[in-house]
Write a structure and sequence with these properties.
This protein is α+β, with helices and mostly antiparallel strands. The chain has a single domain, classed as Cupredoxins -  blue copper proteins (Immunoglobulin-like). The protein contains two helices and ten strands, in the order αββββββαββββ. The strands form two sheets. It has a five-stranded mixed β-sheet, with no helix packed on it. It has a five-stranded mixed β-sheet with strand order 4-10-9-6-7, with helices on one face. A hairpin with a 3-residue loop joins strand 2 (46-53) and strand 3 (57-59).
């Protein structure tokens, strides 16, 4: 019985570790990812305002940047529901949306690639995009991502 209990705890710990490794926001927030790295607020290249609404949309839902740019996303919640913006690969966001469905109270204010914004409030993400590619941003509040609250960051030349 004791060994079964310890084995169960080990499985849960490993599952949690795999989630942490899969998501740049849960890797401690300090390392680089394919997406880039936390940006230095003193080296912001430009500011992009993104509005979130209760129709489960980001406005704009497409952002283009150049490799090496540091973007300050000013994220405004113009709805009446809490929303969030998390940057990541599509796979990371899909996997993390599943975790959010199981943990609906989870917020992302300590992760540099994400911000939770209450109604009529504003938050910020400062991010440096280091590699060319197509990345995503999404609201991972339960049901929001699935309803289409997702956007694209194209990092090109």
């Amino acid at each position: 019985m004791k060994n079964e209990f310890l084995a169960s705890l080990l499985v849960l710990a490993l599952a949690g570790a795999s989630i942490a490794i899969a998501s740049p926001g849960h890797s401690g927030g300090h390392g680089k990812s394919a997406l880039g790295e936390p940006g230095d607020p003193k080296r912001v290249t430009r500011t992009v305002e993104v509005r979130m609404n209760d129709q489960m949309r980001f406005l704009p839902d497409r952002v283009s940047v150049r490799p090496g740019e540091t973007i300050r996303f000013v994220v405004k919640n113009i709805g009446e529901l809490p929303h969030e913006m998390m940057l990541g690969t599509e796979q990371e966001l899909v996997e993390h949306a599943k975790v959010m469905q199981e943990n609906p109270g989870m917020e992302h204010d300590v992760e540099p690639n994400a911000v939770t914004v209450q109604p009529s409030k504003t938050g910020e993400i400062v991010w440096r995009f280091t590699s060319a590619g197509t990345f995503k941003f999404g609201c991972l509040k339960p049901g929001h991502y699935e309803a289409g609250m997702v956007g694209t960051v194209s990092v090109g030349r």
